[in-house]
Design goal:
Order of helices and strands: HHHHHHHHHHH
Strand content: under 5%
Helix content: 55-70%
CATH architecture of the largest domain: Orthogonal Bundle
Distance between the termini: 40 Å
Radius of gyration: 21 Å
Structural class: mainly alpha
Number of domains: 2
Oligomer: single chain
Largest sheet: none
């Protein structure tokens, strides 16, 4: 039997109320667990936290990628919105700083999002976000160059690498000193400034030798893809 176009294009039936309720419970549990523990969270952990059977988790989200796509699409849209907002800032340098800082604030508060951004670069959500985001970053960089505020030679790719450089710091200081990354970011931003005279005072740091070793240890914990 040959299917008609109307048959093949029929919209998917909405989930039953109880199934949709379970889906939302799983997403809420995943959002909390991934923010705290990262992508190493298992389906068994999600089932326990959501108070559903593990089979229910697998039915709604057969693999980790399908869960991540559902969970982080909204966050990716928010990153793009942050870039749009930064372009509205009158001072080009302040707009660039705002974009970088707000993006890292999102990652600092959500380990799962940070790992998704770093290790799921080929996902459909990330590809769509990147296609929207890169032209906006190029505009932020061009504005800062035109204003003479950005160090000559710095490109949009360089700006995109800042979260990659900051990633280990975010992981390392998360439990020891949650705001320590801001000091490291300030050092990076000062390196991007066109004029060294515009460098600002660094935030204070008060870490013992033991705390510093703990930061170093935590920064090298590799996330699990599955």
């Amino acid at each position: 039997m040959v299917e008609t176009r109307a048959q093949t294009c029929r919209p998917l039936r909405p989930l039953r109320k109880d199934a949709e309720r379970n889906r939302q419970r799983i997403l809420e549990a995943a959002r909390k667990l991934l923010a705290e523990q990262g992508m190493a969270v298992s389906h068994d952990q999600l089932a326990e936290a959501a108070d559903v059977a593990v089979g229910t988790v697998y039915r709604r989200f057969p693999d980790k990628d399908s869960l991540l796509e559902a969970l982080f699409t909204e966050d990716m849209n928010r990153v793009v919105a942050i870039a749009h907002g930064a372009l509205l800032v009158e001072d080009p340098w302040e707009g660039l700083v705002q974009f970088v800082t707000q993006g890292l604030e999102m990652q600092a508060g959500n380990r799962g999002l940070k790992e998704f951004l770093m290790y799921n670069v080929t996902s459909e959500t990330m590809t769509d976000c990147r296609n929207k985001l890169m032209p906006l970053i190029e505009q932020l960089v061009a504005r800062a160059h035109a204003a003479g505020r950005l160090r000559p030679g710095v490109s949009a790719a360089d700006l995109g690498l800042v979260p990659v450089m900051m990633g280990p710091v975010l992981d390392g200081c998360r439990e020891v000193s949650p705001d320590l990354w801001r000091r490291s970011l300030q050092i990076v931003l000062d390196g991007l400034r066109a004029c060294a005279d515009e460098r600002v005072e660094l935030p204070p740091v008060d870490l013992s030798a033991e705390d510093m070793f703990e930061v170093m240890r935590c920064s090298h914990v590799a996330p699990a893809r599955r």
